[in-house]
Design a protein that fits this description.
Layout lengths: L14 H28 L6 H13 L2 H21 L6 H14 L2 H28 L6 H37 L8 H27 L4
């Protein structure tokens, strides 16, 4: 590997770059909170389909679904564009980064590569999911179950782990970057990251299973 490739995709450091980094972090935090809240609200079907319907009705009656849905999509797009400043889109950049990752054998560097890959999947599949849901309001447990039983379960079996892995790694990497995860407590936060990641994936799988077995 040529030494010149070591700085192939290193952005120039200045106040603008620092501000964009902060916006990337802030938008990421908002999306993490949204995804976790969304997962918990949808999983209310595990308690009762009527409870899920009541929650969905509240969000639609208050226009939070009609306004919040497009707002979340724009936030997701903005976050992707902000993060895309550092993504190795060119084949030469991607090849150099992959070679460096193999050379370094550094866990956090590998995590970033996984984040890039999952981000691309989420941008496409997340957009499809939001379009399908927001163009078929009102949201109900019966509609969600019908979509899962009509073959969309395979779609969500891909999107669910991609989203939770991306969010879990993002939570951890934000802590590293802004200093509240340090060498002394890194082990604890790695365990917390894994617990949250697998916990939400498990809840998501149980929710998909409930929709799969749902009968009107």
């Amino acid at each position: 590997m040529e030494l010149s490739s070591l700085t192939l995709h290193v952005p120039k450091k200045d106040k603008v770059a620092g501000g964009l980094d902060f916006c990337q972090m802030f938008s990421g935090v908002l999306l993490i909170l949204f995804l976790w809240a969304h997962m918990l609200l949808v999983s209310s079907v595990l308690i009762s389909p009527k409870l899920m319907n009541a929650i969905a009705w509240f969000f639609e009656a208050s226009y939070m679904a009609q306004i919040g849905g497009p707002a979340i999509f724009l936030l997701m797009l903005a976050h992707f564009l902000l993060a895309g400043r550092k993504m190795p889109f060119k084949s030469s950049e991607l090849g150099a980064f992959y070679a460096q990752t193999k050379l370094l054998h550094h866990k956090d560097t590998t995590m970033w590569l996984v984040q890039v890959a999952t981000a691309l999947v989420i941008l496409v599949m997340g957009s499809i999911h939001m379009y399908v849901v927001l163009t078929d309001l009102p949201i109900t447990a019966a509609k969600s179950a019908a979509r899962i039983q009509d073959g969309w379960i395979f779609f969500y079996l891909v999107l669910l782990p991609m989203a939770e892995i991306h969010v879990g790694l993002g939570f951890y990497r934000i802590g590293l970057k802004y200093g509240w995860i340090m060498r002394a407590n890194r082990g604890f936060f790695q365990k917390l990251e894994n617990l949250l990641m697998f916990g939400f994936i498990t809840v998501g799988l149980l929710t998909l299973g409930r929709f799969w077995l749902f009968t009107v």
